[in-house]
Amino acid sequence: MKQIRVLSQAVADQIAAGEVAERPSAVVKELVENAMDAGADRITVEIQKGGVDCIRVADNGSGIPEDQVETAFLRHATSKLVEIDDLYRISTMGFRGEALASICAVAQVEMITKTADAEEGICLELNHGVPSRRDKLACSNGTTVLVKNLFANVPARMKFLKKDSTEAGYVYDLLSRIALSRPDIAFTYICDGKEMFATSGDGKLESVILKIYGLDHAKGVLPVDYTEDNIQICGVIGKPELARGNRTRQTLFVNGRYVKNHVIAKVAEEAFRNSIMVGRFPFFVLQLNLPKELVDVNVHPAKTEVKFANEKQIYDVAYHAIRNALYTATEPKKDETTKIPQRNTSKTNSGNHGGYGSAFKQDRVDPVAVRSYLENTIPKAEEKNEEGLPKTTYVFRDVEETKPVTAEEVLDALLEQEEQKSTTAEQMTFPQVKEETTNETHIRVIGQVFDTYILCQQGETMLLIDQHAAHERLRFESLREAYLKKEHFSQMLLTPIVLSLEYQEKQTVMEHLDYFSKFGFVIEDFGGNGILLQGAPISGDEGVLRDLVLELAEALQMQMKHPIADFEEYALDMISCKYAIKANHKLTLTEMQDLVQRACALEDGGVKTCPHGRPLRVEFSKIEIEKLFKRRV
Ligand code: ADP
Ligand code: MG
């Protein structure tokens, strides 16, 4: 039998240290929280090689009095926790008096500190917890902690660390969220000598968002500020266009502390239910402030999960807060759009009863009402298809296409109506195609229905072809052919586009440049978090290309975690989908004829569906139609 032994102090310390100093980002978290507790308003964090070689956190806070510097490194030494009841406060960040001791156990640490009233500062060096040098020196007020060779004495823990760039990414993620929680503190993050971001400390959340997420985010957020029953929720929520395919851009602080909580994420998603596609998640940075008895924070300083005593109440307040923010922002627009059906019905529809559905009872098609009708009736792609494909966003583009009607569109529709009023009825019939043919295989295009389907006749059959599905399939086939033949299919952009990404996104793109170039992207590093896009597999405006790069990066990230077999096809499909003609898009007769001819050639070759498995066309025989009209029984 094995002997029961008491662990040596050194081993016990290393085990305890593992709880607090689990990885470089955890060390940074403790040091930055100490700096914040010390009242600093300028904090600089610098790391090298993912934080394993070196972590340096410098602050301009209170500093530590000369006679207490050594004490700070003792286990359970703290200036913050006085009574056990204090454990339930979460006003200070760390409070177990363990961080410095734990970090010391697994690294070499050097601290330089000076209080405002001291003449000189103190520099203390510790080698795995044991003080090895102490000097006086001239320095500015505040504290700088240098952590070197993290885990060099604990190889077992070292093995659990990820690549340097991944560890650096965790630090980036952590610091960016801390910076978002404290716009009044100027944070600078430097990684391997490169400045990753620097916030100004001007107290404005929007300024921090600008520095971390870029201009589109700073411009695309709506303020949230709402209080009910002692529960306050404030911050910003992103407009629908900032939504992304994962939740990494959702940040919540409860009483000042960054936490993860499903309730608030759910609320935000629910509040955006009809304006964001399924599978996309809204951007937000929210602060929830509430009496401490309403939250149940796990007191372990490294944990970020939080539970609420009364979830339903929090849910309701948060829902109101977010809906209020959205409503305030969209109110004037809503007014314009809700008037449309009434105006239309009173002008052109006197014999009919109003409402959206009535558009189809008229002999004239009202484009606005059709659009509204489509918004409510176009089947959502998720209900139908894409077996085996992970639920990412790109398959739901039909939903994305049905945007709310804008003021300009209303105006267009009204003008169109005026025009129609003064013209004769036969202009509303479908375009007359001169050449009549009896050829059974010839497909005659009759016209476009709902700007989405192409109506055709082929012999004794009536066909409806889905323009998006058909075009997407065609595009997919040609991209795939080029890809398989290893042909280069990128198109150089006239003006290269600079995309500013998030740290993690840029890492993914840079790590998979070979993939991106295989799929026709010509990308270069643009420094900082920027990339320069010089070529792309498809033409499109900046927004389309930006989305495509990000979606592909997201897909690659997913692929690393949960690989799918046909990733190439999946990616090609994503590209073709972005490029394809959308639903609700008017086509000319020539465009329709061209599309139909090529799509039907594909069908003859056996391809009957779009890459997601939706049918390219549906057919009605003459007999079926005759039965509908009771000409035949
Ligand atoms: P805790 O933060 O839980 O008190 P730590 O081990 O992190 O425990 O720190 C021990 C003590 O050292 C703190 O209570 C604080 O008094 C002092 N201290 C640590 N870092 C700083 C800093 N950056 N500025 C001023 N004082 C600090
Ligand atoms: Mg601490």
Structure description:
There is one protein chain. This protein has 633 residues and is of the alpha+beta class. The protein contains 19 helices and 22 strands. The protein has an eight-stranded mixed beta sheet, covered by helices on one side. The protein starts with 8 loop residues before the first helix and ends in a 5-residue tail after the last helix. Mean pLDDT is 77; it is low at 82-95, 333-407 and 421-437. It binds adenosine-5'-diphosphate (ADP) and magnesium ion. Residues 30, 34-35, 38, 59, 61-64, 72, 77-80, 94-101, 143 line the site of adenosine-5'-diphosphate (ADP).
Sheet with the most strands: spatial strand order: 5-4-3-6-2-1-7-8
Structural class: alpha+beta
In total, the number of strands is 22
> Which consecutive residue ranges, at least 5 long each, have pLDDT under 50?
82-95, 333-407, 421-437
In short:
The chain is built from 19 helices and 22 strands.
Keywords:
single chain, 633 residues, alpha+beta, 8-stranded mixed β-sheet, 5-stranded mixed β-sheet, elongated, binds adenosine-5'-diphosphate, binds magnesium ion
Topology:
Elements: H1 9-20, H2 24-37, E1 42-48, E2 54-59, H3 99-105, E3 108-114, E4 121-127, E5 130-137, E6 142-148, H4 155-158, H5 164-181, E7 186-191, E8 194-198, H6 205-213, H7 215-219, E9 221-228, E10 231-238, E11 250-254, E12 257-259, H8 262-271, E13 284-289, E14 295-297, E15 306-308, H9 311-348, H10 367-377, H11 397-401, H12 407-421, E16 443-449, E17 453-458, E18 461-466, H13 467-484, E19 491-500, H14 503-511, H15 513-518, E20 522-525, E21 530-536, H16 542-561, H17 567-579, H18 589-604, E22 617-621, H19 622-628
Parallel strand pairs: 1-7, 11-13
Antiparallel strand pairs: 1-2, 2-6, 3-4, 3-6, 4-5, 7-8, 9-10, 10-13, 11-12, 14-15, 16-17, 17-18, 18-22, 19-21, 20-21
This protein binds adenosine-5'-diphosphate (ADP) and magnesium ion (MG).
